């Protein structure tokens, strides 16, 4: 391993996982519908312009394949944009059948192949948009089928077309409801995880402030009160020693004031270890945390939070991308503690990659692990990897 790239973290863990899983399901459903539709696709070639058949077929059936291919490297925001775009593309393909229709009417037992695939467009809408917009989209697409079917068979059976529209609403509603519930559940898991982590950090900050208060109390007892007593008895003691003690006390109080003003909320290393342990267990059971060294001084909660999130993202990337062809992948997380440094190393012996070939829009690598860490004073992050040699991600903070 000899290639280094800067890195940093993001959240959206559970919700992102749900969207990636549903993207895979969408691609599988597309292949299933393709198998059911392929004969109708060719049988209806005489009723539509050839170029429309080709373009619409590629748009409807190939786009989900592209989406599932890029899903492992896409962020939650990017995937939602892709699903929203596909919902629009699907609707355009359905509606564009009207101007592309030729040589009609079609036989009564035949319907345009696009009208039987409505769920392929309504489920991505539920992933991409708010529930109200997704349900409105479902109703609009389902009722759009009615005039299309009436046009296709020359207006022979209007009631049948309306019945088919309501049947489509019923079927698509079930899939849309599942997608909406899954997205809501993933979002709630992320909110709960963030709340738990924030609660831990607040508890740690309260503990740190308590110890700072104890330190201040000790200073008041040892220095301030002693100086007051010395001043009160200045007539019986050397005034020079009293002035020296008073100057020393003022200097120490000034140092404490500046330190309190410049240092953010602090947490103890124990809370960092607890946060890492629980976060690692949420990602994988195959990676254990090993701690080397000791550190008595607390560290800023913002630094601890960034290091934990960077570690989580590095592990998540490893779980998604590092799988080797034959052997199972081994992973490890090492926390090194020192008086002036905190460093976390995430390693795996998976298939590795070439960091310099990672696209700049890969949020999971370039932004997701690097942006926040790099923005913090004293923080750093690197990734070291080669194809076939595994990956080593290091994040740390120098005091």
In short:
This protein has 399 residues and is an alpha+beta fold. The chain has 12 helices and 8 strands.
Draw up the topology in text:
Blueprint: E1 4-6, H1 13-43, H2 50-70, H3 76-95, H4 97-100, H5 119-128, H6 131-152, H7 158-232, H8 239-262, E2 266-267, H9 269-283, E3 287-292, E4 299-300, H10 301-321, E5 331-337, E6 341-348, H11 363-367, H12 371-375, E7 379-385, E8 391-398
Parallel strand pairs: 3-5
Antiparallel strand pairs: 1-7, 2-4, 5-6, 6-8, 7-8
Helix pairs in contact: 1-2, 1-3, 1-5, 1-7, 2-3, 3-5, 5-6, 5-7, 6-7, 7-8, 9-10
List keywords for this structure.
two-stranded antiparallel sheet; six-stranded mixed beta sheet; elongated; single chain; alpha+beta; 63% helix; 399 residues
Shape: elongated
Percent range for helical residues? 55-70%
Low-confidence stretches: 1-11, 259-264
The overall pLDDT, averaged over residues, is: 78
What share of residues are in beta strands?
Answer: 5-15%
Could you give the order of strands across the largest sheet?
1-7-8-6-5-3
**How many β-strands, per DSSP?**
8
Topology as a string of helices (H) and strands (E): EHHHHHHHHEHEEHEEHHEE
Our measurement of the CA-to-CA distance between the termini, rounded to an integer number of angstroms, reads 28 Å
Rg computed from alpha carbons, rounded to a whole number of angstroms: 31 Å
Number of helical stretches of at least 4 residues = 12
Characterize the main sheet.
6 strands, mixed
Structural class: alpha+beta
């Amino acid at each position: 391993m000899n290639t280094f790239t800067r890195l940093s973290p993001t959240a959206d863990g559970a919700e992102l996982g749900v969207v990636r899983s549903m993207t895979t399901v969408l691609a599988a459903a597309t292949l299933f519908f393709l198998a059911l539709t392929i004969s109708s696709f060719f049988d209806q070639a005489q009723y539509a312009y050839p170029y429309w058949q080709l373009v619409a077929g590629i748009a409807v059936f190939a786009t989900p394949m592209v989406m599932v291919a890029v899903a492992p490297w896409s962020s939650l925001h990017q995937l939602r944009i892709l699903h929203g775009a596909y919902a629009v593309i699907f609707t355009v393909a359905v509606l564009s059948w009207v101007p592309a229709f030729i040589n009609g009417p079609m036989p009564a037992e035949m319907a345009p192949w696009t009208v039987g695939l409505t769920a392929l467009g309504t489920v991505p809408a539920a992933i991409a948009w708010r529930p109200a917009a997704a349900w409105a989209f479902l109703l609009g697409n389902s009722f759009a089928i009615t005039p299309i079917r009436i046009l296709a068979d020359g207006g022979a059976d209007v009631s049948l077309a309306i019945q088919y529209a309501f049947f489509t609403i019923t079927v698509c509603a079930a899939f849309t409801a599942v997608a909406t519930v899954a997205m809501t559940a993933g979002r709630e898991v992320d909110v709960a995880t963030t709340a738990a982590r924030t609660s831990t950090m607040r508890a740690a900050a309260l503990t740190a402030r308590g110890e700072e208060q104890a330190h201040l109390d000790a200073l008041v007892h040892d220095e301030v009160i002693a100086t007051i007593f010395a001043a009160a008895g200045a007539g019986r003691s050397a005034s020079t020693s009293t002035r020296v003690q008073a100057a020393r006390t003022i200097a120490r109080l000034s140092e404490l004031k500046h330190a309190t003003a410049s240092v953010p909320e602090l947490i103890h290393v124990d809370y960092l270890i607890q946060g890492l342990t629980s976060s690692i267990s949420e990602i994988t059971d195959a990676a254990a945390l090993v701690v080397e060294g000791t550190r008595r001084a607390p560290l800023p909660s913002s630094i601890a939070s960034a290091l934990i999130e960077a570690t989580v993202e590095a592990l998540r990337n490893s779980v998604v991308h590092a799988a080797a062809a034959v052997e199972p992948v081994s992973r490890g997380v090492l926390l090194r503690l020192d008086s002036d440094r905190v460093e976390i190393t995430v390693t795996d012996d998976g298939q590795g990659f070439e960091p310099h070939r990672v696209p700049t829009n890969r949020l999971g690598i370039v932004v997701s692990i690097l942006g926040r860490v790099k923005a913090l004073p004293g923080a750093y992050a690197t990734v070291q990897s080669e194809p076939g040699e595994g990956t080593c991600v290091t994040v740390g903070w120098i005091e």
